[in-house]
Sequence to fold (131 residues):
Amino acid sequence: MKRKELTLVVLLFVGVLAVVARAEAPLSYAADVEPIILKACADCHGGDSPKKGLDLSQGKGFERLLGVKSQEVPEMVLVKAGDPAASYLWLKVAHAATQGKGMPRTLFGSKKLPQAELEAIQNWIIQGANP
Ligand code: HEC
Fold:
């Protein structure tokens, strides 16, 4: 193979690797989930007296969620890496929880997050609930 061809092949290979690495980078709390939480949840789950003692304000949510017991259903944790069905946070946003209301709550009831945001949260948990 000529030098020029070899360079081309190498460049192509590096390009393909970059694309694959990007496609496979797991979702992270900071980049993919926290923006949703700050927008839809932190008004209530933040400040001086966060609802249910759950403080999801900037920089605090991850530590407060992963492996931490739910107040409402103490036999469950809020986020169990790899397992949305065993993550009480997921049940709350999917409106499948047995206690209280679905999240996010509103003045008189509750609403559902847009489908794309629900999928981001679900996939983040499935992919290992990375920081
Ligand atoms: C308008 C205020 C309000 C908003 C907005 C809100 N919550 Fe809540 N949240 C509450 C209240 C009040 C409770 C306790 C009563 C209940 O569950 O309905 C609660 C309870 C919870 C619990 C149970 C905590 C535990 O330890 O068992 C989770 C998890 C939760 N919220 C997550 C969220 C998420 C995620 C969002 C955003 C998508 C959100 N909440 C938005 C008020 C709110």
